[in-house]
Design brief:
This protein is mainly α. The chain is built from five helices and no strands.
């Protein structure tokens, strides 16, 4: 995912519904937007997506829209916290993993 100039790779999709092949640079970046947004990508993949977003205005716009949606969803529905009783019960569980069985 290199050699992309700002607007060069996605200019044809600006203002249109985005329908990209999954293996195109923009398709990869847009499909990875959620994982990138939540820090779920390996560092090298995150670096490639970051590089593409910095070079491609259409993908950056898509990413920023996804980022805003995530912020709004978190604001509307904050993470639930477990009750004190439940936390104590979970912390008291002892689970043994059989590492040789898999």
């Amino acid at each position: 995912m290199s050699g992309v100039t700002r607007l060069g790779c996605c200019a044809q999709w600006l203002g249109d519904d985005i329908d990209l092949p999954d293996d195109s640079e923009c398709g990869v970046a847009m499909h990875a937007a959620h994982a990138f947004l939540h820090g779920e990508l390996p560092e090298d993949a995150g670096d490639e997506i970051r590089e593409h977003l910095m070079a491609c205005e259409a993908c950056m716009d898509y990413y920023q829209a996804e980022e805003m949606i995530t912020v709004l969803l978190r604001r509307c529905s904050p993470p639930a916290r477990a009750s004190r009783v439940l936390r104590v019960r979970v912390e008291s569980l002892h689970i043994e993993l059989d590492t040789e069985a898999a």
